[in-house]
Amino acid sequence: MGRHRSTTVLLIFLGIISNSYGLPHIRNVSSAIPANTKDCSIASSGAYIAISSEAEAIDDSHFLRWIEVKWFGLTELQEDYSVGLWTDNPSIDIPPISWIHVESESGSLRTTERWDGSLLPNKTNPIGMGNYCLPYWAGVSKGGVIVYTSCLRLNPFWLSELSGDELGSVKLADVLLPGTHDAGASGKFGLSILGEVVGRWTFTQDESLWEQLILGSRYLDIRISYYNNTQEKFFINHADIRIAPLIDYVHDVAAFMRSTMEIVIFDIHRLPVGFDHPDRYLELINFLYLHLGRWMTPRSLYPNPTLGEIWDSGRRLIVTFPSGYASDHPYLWNQVHHAWPNTNNLDDLKSRLDNFISDNSGSTSLWSAMAEFTPSALDVAVDHWHGLRGAAEITNLPVTKWLRESWWKMANIVAMDYLPASGVVEAAIEANMARLSC
């Protein structure tokens, strides 16, 4: 049982000389492919920009996170590695904002740059939205030469843009999709309602569903409850804790479906509260048809169509539903199969996900690796990790590294807490391109 609760990367060589302040100063040199990148593989070393899962509250309803540079796979430390943060592509003659000498194979540089989400396009006016870099770039220097760069990207169209690379002929269960665990348990909605203490063990994301989707998530793990004594009947919950009305979330998904040609999985994973009468299931199904029906993928394509078959149907939103009700409705799919490591230990997280991913590779139905810690009652009581934010700070870099090392060949869905605090989206985009080359 589970808890209730990223198009190819630009790889270039640049030269670095020191300016009078002792910071790296950039000059252009020729481009090249790093030695560890081969056909039919993805980069197993490099760096990426993350938005920290940890945050600082500035009032009862708002908080700021940090821009971080995460690096991985830098095994030859005698080669004098450094990593840094730039506001533009390091090929431009500008110094970094922050940089650090690397003394470990993987790690994190928390910069002084703060993130408030204001750079993300608004769903009510998404003009100009595209797959592009925001003004945060990571660079890895090896012996005074930058060998790897990446940026914090918006990825609203990544899947449909890959369709031009023959992805349309690939089966859905053979695509690697980044996702968000407990996607609706977002501090975007309920910080002031729940308070800091409850919130730190309730929230698993910071972005709205719209923001999660434009940042690249294509799998949304959803928990819906029914409340008979409120004006709005359907709410998103984390277990028994009510977050916000479902209508806010379906408006986000509808806006994204209108604005893109992406395929999205809306996995109604649990109905934790209030579904003690058959009429309430039907009421929820009618609600979903009303607000999302025009995009809902027909059950006739279940369980494992090609992406091209989904696009050709004109209906790109796969809505799954628990219980036996799904089989009786033409636009509901059976639920995604979830793998829960059920651990608060990093070594166990890896070993259990290793086994699950290996066992499910080649499956002909959707399956998801739930790549996050499950806190014990004692963890909550003693405020271990200072909540789920701190837990994600521990797990998200290793999960990104493991995905790049081996899981990318086999995984279907990888669902994360605080997805932008990982490099899973860019790794998934690279992996799907590599799979097409294999």
UniProtKB/TrEMBL annotation:
Question: Which GO MF terms are attached to this record?
Answer: phosphoric diester hydrolase activity
Superkingdom of origin organism = Eukaryota
Tell me which Gene Ontology terms the entry assigns under biological process. Answer: lipid metabolic process
Q: Which UniProt keywords apply?
A: Signal
Q: Does the keyword tRNA-binding apply?
A: no
| Signal peptide from the UniProt entry | 1-22
Q: Would the keyword Signal turn up in this protein's UniProt record?
A: yes
What InterPro entries does the annotation carry? PI-PLC_domain (IPR051057), PLC-like_Pdiesterase_TIM-brl (IPR017946)
Q: What is this protein called?
A: PI-PLC X domain-containing protein 1
Species of the source: Meganyctiphanes norvegica (Northern krill)
